[in-house]
Amino acid sequence: MQLADCDRSFLRCAFVVAISFFSLFAFENVSTADESLNVGNELQRTLIEPALPLREVQAYVESRMIPMPEVTSASDWERHAKRMRTETLDKVVFRGEAAKWRDAKVKVEWKETLDGGPGYKIKKLLYEALPGLWIPAVLYEPQNLNGKVPVGMAVNGHDPIGKATKYKQIRCINMAKRGMVVLNPEWLNMGQLRGENYAHYRMNQIDLCGTSGLAPFYLAMSKGLDVLLAHPNADATKVAVSGLSGGGWQTIFISSLDTRVTLANPVAGYSSIGTRARYSQDLGDSEQTPSDLVTTADYSQMTALLAPRATLLTYNAKDNCCFKAEHALPPLVEAARPVFALYGKTGNLRTHVNHDPGDHNFELENREAYYKIVGDHFFAGQPFDSKEIPSAEEVKTPEQLNVELPKTNEDFHSLAMKLAEKLPHAAAIPTAADQLTKWSEAKRNQLREITRFKKETIQSIPESASRTLDHATVTHWWLRHAGAWTIPAVEFTPEKVTGSVLIVTDEGRKSIPAGMIEDQLKQGNRVVAMDPFYLGESKISERDFLHALQLACVGDRPLGLQASQIASVAAWIRKQSEGLSKTVPVRVISMGPRTSLATLVASALEPDSISEIELHKSLRSLKQVIEKNMGVNEIPEYFCFGLLEFFDIPQLTALTTPRRSTFVGATE
Question: Is the pTM of this model over 0.85?
Answer without folding.
Answer: yes
